[in-house]
Amino acid sequence: MISKFCTSYAITHRGVVRQLNEDAHVEINSHNLWVVADGMGGHEAGEVASQLVVDVIRTKVQELELDVLSISHIVGAIEEANRQLSEYSASYLDNKTAGSTVTALFLKDGNYHILWAGDSRAYLLRDGELQQISRDHSQVNDLIDEGVISVEEAKNHPLSNVITRAVGVMENVKVDVIKDKIRTGDIFLLCSDGLTGELSDNDICMSLEPNSIIDSGMALMHSSLVRGARDNVTCILIKYDETKDNQDINAINNMDEATIPLFTK
C-alpha cells in the first residue's frame, strides 16, 4: 500500500504447524500507521483477540484526520481494545485469557513513533544496519537483563514463550513508546514472534538487502517457512523515501490476485 513518502507491504501465514492464524495486522496508510498483533489464549480466542485489537485501533484512528492524530490517541485506542477484550473474556470465555501483543509504527512531523506491548517486534534498517527498536516484554528478556541467562541460552529456554505484558490480560495495559527522527531510505519491519523465532537478526538483515520491500517481505516469509514456521508468521515492511522511488510503487500497483502468493493476506 502507498501513502505520501511511504510504501508498505504486509504478508502473513499460519505457519507449518498451527491450524489457525492468530496473528492480525492492519495498514492505515492514510494515517501513516501500521500495526501487527499476535493473539494468545488458546483455540480461536487468540484469533479473536488480535483481530479485535487491530479493528479497534483502525476504527478509532480513522475517526480523526491525520493532522489531529497523536500518540495519545493511538495509546487510547489500545487501552480501549484492552477494555473490550476484558469484557469479551468475561462474557464468552468464563474469564479465561484472550490477549494479544501489539506493535505499531506511526509517522508524523518528521518523526517515527514505535508503540508496543508484548514481544512482537519493531526493527529499523538504516544505512545497511539493522536495529531492534522495541524491547521484548518477556520473561526471558527480563532474565537476560538480570544477567541470569545469556542471549544464546534464551533461544531454547522453557520460558521463551512467556510474555510479561499484553493487551487484554490485565485491567490496565502499559504501552511503551519510542520516538526519533526519520530519514529518507529508512525501512521499518513490524513482525510477530513467529518470524523472529525462526530467523536471527542477521538472517532478517540479509533478507532486507533487496531494494524492493516486496522482494524482502517474500524472502522473510520464504525463509521462515523453509525453517519450519512453528508459529504464525506476520510482517509489515514500511519504506520511507521523500524522493519517492517508484520501484515498489509500480510493483504493488501491478500486482493482481494471480501474482500474489497463496500465503499473502
UniProtKB/TrEMBL annotation:
Name the Gene Ontology molecular function terms of this record. Answer: protein serine/threonine phosphatase activity
Where would you find the membrane-spanning parts of this chain?
none
| One Pfam family from the record | PP2C_2
PROSITE patterns for the chain:
PPM_2
Which residues does the UniProt record annotate as the domain PPM-type phosphatase? 7-240
- Give the source's domain of life in one word: Bacteria
Protein name per its UniProtKB record? Serine/threonine-protein phosphatase
Q: Which organism is it from?
A: Pseudoalteromonas fuliginea
